[in-house]
Amino acid sequence: MRLFFVVGPSGVGKDTLLSGAIAADPALHWARRAITRPESAGGEPFEGVTEAEFSNRLARGDFALHWDAHGLSYGVPHTELPLGRDVLLNGSRAAIAQALAAFPGLRIIHITAPVPVLAERLLGRGRESRDQIEARLIRADQPLHAAVPVIEIANDTTPEAGVARLLQALRA
Ligand SMILES: Nc1ncnc2c1ncn2[C@@H]1O[C@H](COP(=O)(O)OP(=O)(O)OP(=O)(O)O)[C@@H](O)[C@H]1O
Ligand SMILES: O=P(O)(O)OC[C@H]1O[C@H](OP(=O)(O)O)[C@H](O)[C@@H]1O
Fold it and tell me: Is 69 near ligand 2, meaning CB less than 6 Å away?
């Protein structure tokens, strides 16, 4: 199993490129996260849980990885990391150190796009309020964990080009 931790600022296109890669190569597994957000918010396939459910599952040891960001909690259940499959995980830049400690062979894929493009995409997506979008944009330039090699992918043209770049990185 290779584990790919796909990170980058909100709105950069992680969900878009991940769903394109999965559609092109069904052998890949996209780990489904538990998030303290209602499933009706849409976006990537995830399990919407309450804060109480999240805390209980965390205490039970259900999660291989977990982090907080944007006022939400995110957990990756152990059951979402099947042995023998390449796994794609929508990660957080703030969780890279934790993820590397848990999975030393982790491959980090950093997706980038210029900040004005992120703003345009977040507004176009319409999942968050303007205030929430502003808060997400403030995190846009957050530095990555310094001492690790990272595969950089620019998603600054079409989604199709971004998906092709991601597939190329996964096949390298
Ligand atoms: N290359 C692209 N060109 C134009 N629009 C794009 C491109 N990639 C993604 N988008 C659009 O930008 C918006 C944000 O993309 P997406 O939800 O995939 O980002 P994300 O990185 O997963 O964000 P978040 O971390 O907030 O979940 C979506 O509406 C998506 O359709
Ligand atoms: O800014 P950083 O810490 O890199 O990412 C924070 C989190 O935000 C995004 O989730 P979503 O947009 O709420 O689904 C990412 O998937 C990540 O989990």
Answer: yes
Q: Read off the pLDDT of residues 73-94 as tens digits, 9 standing for 90 and up.
A: 999 999 999 989 999 999 999 9
For residue 21, the CA-to-ligand 1 centroid distance in Å is 14
Distance 42 CA to ligand 2 centre (A): 14
* ipTM surpassing 0.90: yes
- CATH (domain of 162): 3.40.50.300
- Residue ranges making up the domain that contains 94: 3-171
Structure-token match 């929508």, residue found? 90
Nearest ligand for residue 7 CA = 2
Alpha helices in the chain (DSSP H): 14-24, 51-60, 96-102, 115-125, 130-138, 159-171
Cα-based distances in Å from 103 to 9, 117, 136, 137, 172: 22, 32, 27, 29, 20
Q: Give the whole-angstrom CA distance, residue 29 versus residue 131.
A: 33
Measured by CA distance, the residue closest to atom 10 of ligand 2 is 10
Query: With a 6 A CB cut-off, is 92 part of the ligand 1 pocket?
Result: no
- Give the count of domains, the chain: 1
Residue having the nearest C-alpha atom to atom 13 of ligand 2: 70
Summarize pLDDT for 117-155 with one digit per residue, the tens. 999 999 999 999 999 999 999 999 888 876 788 999 999
